[in-house]
Amino acid sequence: FELMFVRPLLLSALLATGSIAEMEPQCQCSEIKPCVEAAGGTVHSCADRCQKYFIAMGAQWRAAKQCILAHEERILAAGECAHKSFGQICATSPGFLVPKRYTGTIELAAYTEISAMLKRSGVFLEGKQMIKAGSKGVGCMSKCVARSSCAKLNCGIALPSDNVIVSNVKSCAIRAGFTTPIIRQVCQCLASAGVLQLANVCERLTVT
């Protein structure tokens, strides 16, 4: 379960400080590799630690996790695809600089894209409330992962613009099989797991 979220949360942790106008040393690949390998257990424990935010949405935690586990292969494929699409994010030798980044700008770009998709599906008002509720859980996990050893590295990674990141992740998710029928299936599973607010939304969701 934890491997599905390693790369997105790890990238968020590494982007946790600084402004886009400042520069910082680029992380060397040798520094990041041990963090990535150890991050799985961190994400797993952080997910369980932050489960109260998802339970507050009505979810039965174990059942909700199974809704995601059922699509583990697709999620891993999407994550690998997105990771490759970013190119060389770390340095093979010291001496390179990269712009510092805000996690908030990437989150805003993702929110904008998700909101646009919900509007096209005609479920923006219902979906907007779910995004607000779910963001607390995601924020909790990001902060938890940010306390891992990777976040403590005094360096940054080279990533494309926020909109390109979001676009690449979306394209990779669709390529991995997260089409409209699958997204509706996941939605219905979560509704059955207790997130009742989704019950009237799932059949109208459209991936575009």
Structure description:
The protein is mainly α and 208 residues long. It has nine helices and two strands; from the N terminus they run H-E-H-H-H-H-E-H-H-H-H. The chain has helices spanning 6-14, 29-49, 51-55, 61-69, 72-85, 103-121, 124-146, 162-175, 180-192, and strands at residues 23-25, 97-99. It has a two-stranded antiparallel sheet. Helix 2 crosses helix 7 and helix 5 (72-85) packs across helix 8 (162-175).
Q: Helix and strand layout, with pairings?
A:
Elements: H1 6-14, E1 23-25, H2 29-49, H3 51-55, H4 61-69, H5 72-85, E2 97-99, H6 103-121, H7 124-146, H8 162-175, H9 180-192
* H/E topology pattern: HEHHHHEHHHH
Structural class: mainly alpha
- Residue runs with pLDDT of under 50 for 5 or more positions: 1-5, 16-20
Number of helices: 9
State the helicity in percent bands: 55-70%
Proportion of beta-strand residues: under 5%
Mean pLDDT rating:
82
Write a compact overview of the structure shown:
By secondary structure, this protein is mostly helical. Helix content is 61%, strand content 3%.
Give descriptors for this structure.
single chain, 208 residues, mainly alpha, 61% helix, 3% strand, globular
